[in-house]
Amino acid sequence: MSDEQPAFWFGFEVAWAKLAVARVCVFGLLALDALDQIRHAPRYGAGGFNVAQLPGLDALGPGRVAYGACELMNAYIFVLAAFGAARRGALGLAAALYAWLYFGSQLDSYQHHYLVALVLVIACCVPWQRPAQATPATPVRAWAVRLWLVQLAVMYLWAAISKLNPTWLHGTALDGQIHGPLRSLIDATIGLRATAWLVVLTELVLAATVWWRRAWPIVAPIGLGFHLAIVFTGLEIGLFAWLMIAMYALVVPDRVWVWLLARLEPVRARLAGIALGTAARLGAIAAAVVLGIVLAALCRFEDALGLAIVLGLVVAGAALARRRTWLCIAHVAAIATWLAVDRASTIAVDYYKFWGGDARRLGERADAEHAYRRLIAIAPDDAAAHFQLGRVLLVQGDASGLDELHVAEQLEPDRARSLVLEARWLAGHGDRAAALAKARAAVAAEPGDREAQAVLARLAR
Amino acid sequence: MIDPLGHVVALARSWRGRFILVFVAIQLALPLTYYVGRRDPHDERFAWRMFSPMRMARCTPRFTLDGKPLALTSEFHEAWIEIAERGRFHVIEAMAARVCARHPGSAVVVTLDCTYLDRPPAQYGGYDMCQVPRL
Questions:
Q1: Do B77 and A10 touch (CB under 8 A)?
Q2: How many CB atoms lie within 10 A of CB A377?
Q3: Which of A78, A397, B46, B93 has the most Cβ atoms closer than 10 angstroms to its Cβ?
Q4: Which of B27, B48, B117 is opposite residue A173, by nearest beta carbon?
Q5: Given CB atoms, is B103 within the 8 Å cutoff of chain A?
Q6: What is the pLDDT of residues A405-445, one digit of tens each?
Q7: Residue B72 shares a structural domain with residue B106
Q8: Do B53 and A173 touch (CB under 8 A)?
Q9: Looking at the predicted structure, is the pLDDT value of residue A357 above 50?
């Protein structure tokens, strides 16, 4: 028996270019996924109820604020990692936060989040930083990359095993789940049954080969095609298929990435050659901190500004102590990512909308009022927000709710709900004539609304 | 020639190797628990059962409090109700325990009716879960 460590793991090498590309693809996508999850933060801790993924952790699950802040923090670290500016400690923190968010509550049903929780632990052991004097083709020993690929193989294996039953193999399970453009293509060509068999076969082939370097030229197109096809199925699996595609950066043959990065090498060399004097370096650090704060102030995610201030100070300290100016660029890019995703999506609006709705249904009126006021602050033309705030205020006996209903009536003149609510409130406060007028206006605005008709009928008696 | 035992022994000599061993062993074994030891067929967590027929199970959890129907929406976030509608026993049991704790001395009867793609419909519970807390 040899004293040597098994070469299968510890002799495994990939080109530096592959690690660089995988870093950008995987962590970039994880950053987007983390920010996308913020909209679901209000469900965490709602009503004081939680069931953790692991026994004994129910009371330790994340709440709304912690969930939102941790996803923001993780998105930040993932962008740093994509830039190669996150060291093992930062990735370890992201892995720990991610594991807490995922294992802390069964509210997260996405299988790819379980996969991410696992691969983040592995990712802490991958040498993501560029070795000194490395070229794109420089081989880097990376046993953790081998483990990552073995993890994918295990996942494919069990996924295939789970499909070895008549319901899947006859195509019945696929029939109920697959939609979108791919469904039309399947129906018009090989049919569901053949597709079901093809899926099992593909998963078995990937399980047997995804970790095997010599098979990569064949496995990469198969795996990429498989997951790209899943994107077009219309399955509600979040970014699972996209994440798998990003992970295939580790499976695409090294020479592809070496060729690509060799084209970019002159740009990298030029950037690396920029030497800043002490004054310029201090100026760059200060500018990064200030710019980060400004960008965060424009961001509508809760706690973004506070987090940006703290992170700015940490980054400034690290950049000063270790002369890591690159970290400052990554810091600004990370917070710019928060802002870009916020402004290009409805995540912040959804967050407050869901929070308000959850709190209202669970009878937490103060929280509901706060959430709807915040929603109106960022989306003043959202009729539903004004209607819901009016509703919450009127339930609390606050007549200023009528003002919100009036705004909602103006924003959605063809909806009856605000007029109906106002009619009810007026009738309840003895102003029957005004209530009747509002009920008539409600029916006129939305003639098909049964509630409006019922209120009008009742008041007109 | 591959020597699996020698490979494992060699791995066990370093912390990295032990980490790999534990990681791979857990990942190979954990999904097996779905098939051999899990009492809840609806709970497919950690088993990599993507797009399985069980994912299409539809369940209707009905809670009564001292014989009267209980509106779950006023007690629990709708996301938990959705998980209960997938039939996950752990969650339904925790929901029942919560209602029992809020209403000491009351009877909380939970009935779970499920329909499946690959098996006949089934009913679970139907008894006071304050007395018998497991489905």
A1: no
A2: 11
A3: A78
A4: B117
A5: no
A6: 999 999 999 999 999 999 999 999 999 999 999 999 999 99
A7: yes
A8: yes
A9: yes
On whether both A166 and A307 belong to a single domain, the answer is no
| Residue A3: per-residue pLDDT | 54
A205 residue type, one letter? V
CB of A365 within 8 A of CB of A359?
A: yes
Identify whether A82 is part of a domain: yes
**Parallel, antiparallel, or unpaired for β A139-141 and B108-115?**
unpaired
Among chain B residues, CA nearest to A167: B118
Number of domains observed in the structure of chain B: 2
Q: Does B66 touch chain A (CB under 8 A)?
A: no
Report which of A146, A155, A82, A78 is spatially closest to residue A114, judged by C-alpha positions: A155
**DSSP-derived secondary structure for A354-399:** HHHHHHHHTT-HHHHHHHHHHHHHH-TT-HHHHHHHHHHHHHTT-T
Q: Could you tell me if A131 and A262 lie in one domain? A: yes
The reported pTM is 0.93
HSE at residue A55, side-chain half, CA atoms within 13 A, is 1
B42 touches chain A (CB under 8 A): no
Residues spanned by the domain of A409: 347-460
Tally the domains of chain A.
Answer: 3
The verdict on B10 and B65 lying in the same domain is no
The answer on A338 and A382 residing in a single domain is no
Cα–Cα distance measured from residue A86 to residue A94, given in angstroms and rounded to the nearest whole number: 10
| B44, part of any domain | no
Q: Is residue B24 domain-shared with residue B58, that is, in the same domain? A: no
Q: Please list the helix, strand and coil fractions of chain A in percent, rounded to the nearest 5, in that order.
A: 75, 0, 25
User: Residue A438 has which token pair?
Assistant: 């509002």
- Residue B21: which domain range? 4-30
pLDDT of the residue at A2: 47
Neighbours of A367 (CB within 10 A): 19
The interaxial angle of helices A347-361 and A383-395, nearest 10 deg, is 20
Residues A411, A310: one domain?
no
- Do residues A258 and A308 share a domain? no
